[in-house]
Amino acid sequence: MPTLNCSLQGPAHGPVTGPVPTSNSHSNARQVALKILSTSSSTSTKSSSLISSLQSPSDRNLCTNLVQTANRREGQIDDIIQRHAKKRPKKVVLAALKLGIVQMKFLDTPPHAAIYETLEALKTFPSVSKPQVSFVNAVLRSASNSTSPLSPSTSNLSPHISSTLSSDWGSSVMSEVAEVYSLHDGGVTLSCTDVDVVGEMFRTHNVTNEISPLGSVGVKNPGSIKKLPGFDEGLWWVQDSSASLPAILLKNSIERIKKEGETVRVVDVCSAPGGKAMQMGSWGWEVEGVELKEKRAKRMRENIERTRLQNKVTVTVADAKTFQPSLPPLGFLLDAPCTATGTGRKNVDVMRRSEAEGKKMEEELVNTTVGIWENAKHWGSKVCVFSVCSLSVREGESQVDTFLRMGGVEIDRIMPEEVPGFEGSIDEQGRLRIFPSDRGDGFFITRFIFV
Ligand SMILES: C[S@@+](CC[C@H](N)C(=O)[O-])C[C@H]1O[C@@H](n2cnc3c(N)ncnc32)[C@H](O)[C@@H]1O
Hints:
By secondary structure, this protein is of the alpha/beta class. The protein has helices at about 25-35, 45-50, 55-70, 75-85, 90-105, 110-125, 130-145, 160-170, 170-180, 195-205, 245-255, 275-280, 295-305, 355-375, 395-405, and strands at about 190, 210, 215-220, 235-240, 265-270, 285-290, 315, 330-335, 385-390, 410, 430-435, 445-450.
């Protein structure tokens, strides 16, 4: 592999050949993408507001795709930069290399257009010098001529995430997860108060959607979520189909034990932002949510008001390790705080977590969850569901072993007919272990019965 002498002080290179893109070529989207990629907060709310500042929906889509793909493919892009640049530049110059490479290697932009547009975006930054522009031009041209294969998508996972996934599930599952998390999937899945009403409304407004057997609605290209029909009326909320399963499984066991005409009262432990609480409230249940963080509880209250479920769902800010419900609940759902390693499709930071951060988080969250369980098991419930959106055995299967050792419960096996589309994810103990490559977010779910 020839490595050009692309130093920052290198000679200026000639113009890139090929047809020059017209003014209709989304230059604003690329400028904003470059700005976002040049700051360390490229996944933060600041980047969302920069993207929202773009006028046209197609610019916003392109910018999101550029930023998301550059973040998700960081390991593969870094490998290309390393092979073609002698020196690793900083900030906006590094961001320009990423922007050019992402277009050429991952978004099928013809190389001459990708390079031209990247250089034009770079030149709008007043602090950028001519030698820096020449450097970017030279590195991108060298990369565009290269026929070397890309490094595998596993290089986009941090060493900590790839080693924990491999030791828990083996290297082929780790590779599948890396592949899924490396793709930018702009789609969204919704839970609805009434799926038929939402399906009809989307049909009327020509919103292409797919309704899953569990009643979740998938929208591939949603654009702005708040502009989708039914948002203001509170007919739906964003929730992955695997995330809708814990409440559905609790419902099935409650149906079996509840008395004729009995009002179903449940506690939703660790409740915000409220996806599962709203699901249960939409079935007419009385749901008492418990959430530690005031800010998250506030967001949950807004969601409850938007979905008009305030008569059914309440949220109390409290530590679930000591919280006592106002009345004994028939059941509870503990959607425990976790490292969220199953949510990398939406949350790119998950892919990059360091060992120090990952281990500390896991240790704290596992202890918190055991403390919550110790408290909740004395509330007098008959059934409960435990779930985590983590792929870690320690946060999932091992926690269930701990709960069983603590006594008072048995596993209530999940049956295939309860989980259409996820039948293959039931393990030999009747628990659900869903991987992101199966469909949607990774989840682990176990249902218990008190004995
Ligand atoms: C996985 S999220 C819950 C998602 C929620 N069940 C839903 O469906 O929208 C976990 C939540 O637990 C909260 N939490 C963490 N520790 C807690 C504790 N000790 N008591 C109550 N809530 C806690 C976190 O702030 C976070 O909002």
